Amino acid sequence: MRRRGTRTVEALNVHPDTLRYRVRKSIVLSGISTDDRDQRLVAMLQLRLALNGKALTKAPFPTL
User: Fold this and answer.
1) Cα torsion angle, 11, 12, 15, 18, sign
2) 13, 24, 49, 64: which has the fewest C-beta neighbours closer than 10 Å?
3) pLDDT value at residue 5
């Protein structure tokens, strides 16, 4: 069994710590509660609508 996030790390070509940092940062910036199922669902649907069914073609976060 692979660790959680392994496919995401590989797809984004980032270190696992970088992924964890970016997820935490996006939660803080968005203000969503990850404990609330409804908020997670709304956030997921908004992201899918924003992407309009297309895969990301550039980095989802600005690089420093």
Assistant:
1) negative
2) 64
3) 75
Rounded to whole angstroms, how far apart are CA atoms 31 and 49? 19
**CA pair distance 24, 58, nearest whole angstrom:** 20
d(CA 6, CA 15): 10
pLDDT in tens, 18-35: 999 998 998 899 888 889
Q: What span, in angstroms and rounded, lies between the C-alpha atoms of 50 and 28?
A: 20
Please name the residues in contact with 5: beta carbons below 8 A apart, sequence gap of 6 or more: 16, 19, 20
Which residue in 25, 11, 15 sits closest to 59, CA to CA?
Answer: 11
